[in-house]
Specification:
The complex is a heterodimer of chains A (202) and B (367).
Chain A: H1 4-7, H2 13-26, H3 30-51, H4 55-71, H5 81-99, E1 116-117, H6 126-145, H7 148-159, H8 164-171, H9 175-192
Helix pairs in contact in A: 2-3, 3-4, 3-5, 4-5, 7-9, 8-9
Chain B: H1 2-6, H2 8-14, H3 19-23, H4 32-44, H5 46-64, H6 78-87, H7 95-98, H8 106-111, H9 115-122, H10 128-140, H11 142-159, E1 163-164, H12 174-181, H13 183-192, H14 199-224, H15 226-244, H16 271-274, H17 294-305, H18 318-365
The chains are: A mainly alpha (202), B mainly alpha (367).
């Protein structure tokens, strides 16, 4: 049996911690797996809710991703646990989007309620919050109108910081396709927001 | 006045001439017949000739008119063009399609620029050549520069997009864990695991054994012509049965090794066991008799070749016994070969199935 802790030289303490948790979870320690869930559930939800413009659907996708990860713990072959979880969740999100293809999209109907959280550190500035909320409303509506593939590629690139190759591997398309989706998606967003670009400038 | 006097009669005739036909002489595309008619009229009528001369002089003067200087530049600015585009919403012909030559504005020039190249520049992984081309385009076109600024701003806005708070805790309960990791899922996950060092060698071993077994079971038979030897064995068995006639079988003296099944012991004579079997292979040969059977070894040939005389084996229909045993003996070879083929095939199937399971488990592991 390959032991991730012994065979992988990991200098990053976060990754080392993750591998130890995975190893313990493989041995049947549910608490170890739930520690991983606690570490990554916010990040994973923030990623998926940008790709699936419906909070409940996004939550279902994240829950299923953790279920799937637990089921296939033994299939984890080392590397970044975060990337592995992201890959599972992104595949799930894309499946969900394909399934709801023909349904009309009302992006984030709960935009006005208090469930929306500003980035850390911005809470003290109400004016900044107001601008961010307005931007979020406009951008979310525009994001919901571009294609699912373009939206996924832009979110993975801009928000998660993955490069073209990583996104290509994650989504199962060629590198050129990823590039094209990102660039065309950006131009489409700009076209949709042409009259409201002042909100984003300066 | 002499002209008017002399031309008076002709003048009256000129009133009936059509001046348009004289004017038509200036057309470059006038048909030859019309041109000939008009020229004849000009030649015959001095008034028509004077008209033609005047029209020709006017045309020449028109060409020589001086052109006044242009008072202003008529090219459109981008603002004007943008206003026109907005004002033209719904018109069938886009404004850009009506601008030609030097009347193109900066907006239509921008429309011809590669906007994907500008979008490319926003990304971190743009190549040097692409970056150089994009920057050149930015420097030359203010609209491209604005597009670039907007795309950068949108990218930043996407990064700082507000997200709703997580609606619930995603930790797994023990019941979830039990449901997810039990039974075949656990087995499958273990097979697909990188920690699993057994399944692959096992799959390789089983597949190899299966293939080797199939080869061993099929190739020698094909080379030696097994069918002929089976027929020979069968013939010998039948001959033995005929020769033994009414010789009976004694269940107590029958070698257990020769009995195909307990239920058929009474019918299976030992006779064939004592018969030499030249065509039989080692697998099909009856086992050697033990010391307890030695008396039988001596008696069996007599019993076999005494025809209808009584013998220790009397009382049983020996022909049927020997015939059955002969069949059993002749079937021994194919049954052995068949069994080997079946076993080898099973090993091969299990090995390949294990490979397939590993592949499926790994695919599932990727989500």
């Amino acid at each position: 049996m390959e032991d991730l802790r012994s065979t992988t030289v990991v200098e990053d303490p976060v990754q080392r911690r993750d591998l130890i948790l995975v190893e313990r979870a493989r041995e049947g320690d549910l608490d170890a797996f739930n520690d991983l869930v606690r570490v990554y559930q916010d990040q994973l939800f923030a990623l998926i809710v940008r790709m699936v413009p419906d909070r409940d659907q996004a939550a279902d996708v994240v829950q299923e991703a953790f279920f799937s990860a637990y089921k296939h713990l033994d299939a984890f072959r080392g590397g970044s646990v975060k990337s592995w979880l992201n890959r599972i969740a992104v595949n799930g999100a894309m499946d969900t989007q394909r399934a709801r293809k023909r349904r009309p999209v009302q992006p984030y109907p709960e935009l006005e309620d208090e469930s929306w959280q500003p980035p850390a550190g911005d809470e003290a500035d109400p004016e900044r919050i107001a601008v961010l909320t307005e931007r979020t409303r406009a951008l979310s509506q525009a994001l919901a109108l571009i294609t699912d593939d373009q939206r996924a590629a832009i979110v993975l690139y801009d928000v998660e910081g993955y490069d073209y190759l990583e996104i290509a591997e994650m989504t199962g398309v060629s590198l050129g396709t990823v590039k094209s989706r990102i660039h065309r998606g950006r131009l489409a967003l700009r076209g949709l927001l042409e009259g409201r670009m002042e909100l984003f400038r300066g | 006045m002499a002209e008017s006097t002399t031309a008076a009669g002709r003048h009256e005739g000129h009133d009936e001439h059509d001046p348009e036909r004289i004017a038509a002489l200036l057309d470059r595309d006038l048909p030859d017949a019309d041109r000939a008619f008009a020229q004849a009229r000009v030649a015959a009528c001095p008034a028509c000739a004077a008209l033609h001369a005047d029209l020709t002089a006017l045309a020449k003067a028109n060409l020589e008119l001086p052109t006044p200087a242009r008072l202003r530049d008529f090219r459109l600015t981008s603002d004007v063009a943008a206003t026109l585009v907005q004002g033209m919403a719904g018109e069938p012909v886009p404004v850009g399609a009506r601008l030609t030559g030097e009347m193109t504005d900066s907006r239509s020039r921008h429309a011809a620029h590669d906007r994907l190249l500008i979008a490319n520049l926003v990304d971190r992984s743009v190549s040097d050549s692409e970056r150089a081309r994009a920057e050149e385009q930015l420097a030359a076109c203010s609209d491209c520069a604005l597009l670039y600024e907007d795309l950068v701003a949108l990218s930043a806005a996407t990064r700082s997009l507000l997200v709703p708070s997580r609606p619930r805790d995603f930790t797994l309960t023990p019941a979830d864990a039990d449901r997810l990791r039990r039974g075949w899922r656990r087995v499958l996950a273990a097979i697909g695991s990188s920690r699993d060092v057994f399944s692959r060698p096992l799959a390789v071993g089983l597949t190899t054994l299966g293939l080797a077994g199939l080869l061993v079971a099929t190739i020698p038979a094909a080379l030696t012509g097994q069918t002929g030897s089976q027929e020979r064995l069968s013939t010998i068995g039948n001959a033995v049965g005929d020769a033994s006639g009414g010789a009976g079988a004694d269940p107590e003296t029958m070698p257990s090794q020769a009995a195909p099944a307990p239920s058929s012991q009474a019918e299976s004579g030992p006779a064939a066991a004592a018969v030499p079997s030249p065509g039989a292979s080692a697998m099909a040969e009856p086992a050697p008799l033990t010391s307890a059977d030695s008396g039988y070894e001596r008696q069996a040939p007599d019993a076999l070749f005494q025809g209808g005389e009584s013998s220790p084996l009397a009382g049983e229909p020996d022909g049927r016994t020997a015939d059955l045993y002969g069949k059993s003996l002749s079937a021994g070879q194919p049954i052995g070969g068949l069994a080997m083929i079946v076993v080898a095939g099973l090993l091969l199937l299990v090995g390949l199935g294990l490979f397939a399971l590993r592949w499926i488990a790994r695919r599932l592991g990727d989500g």
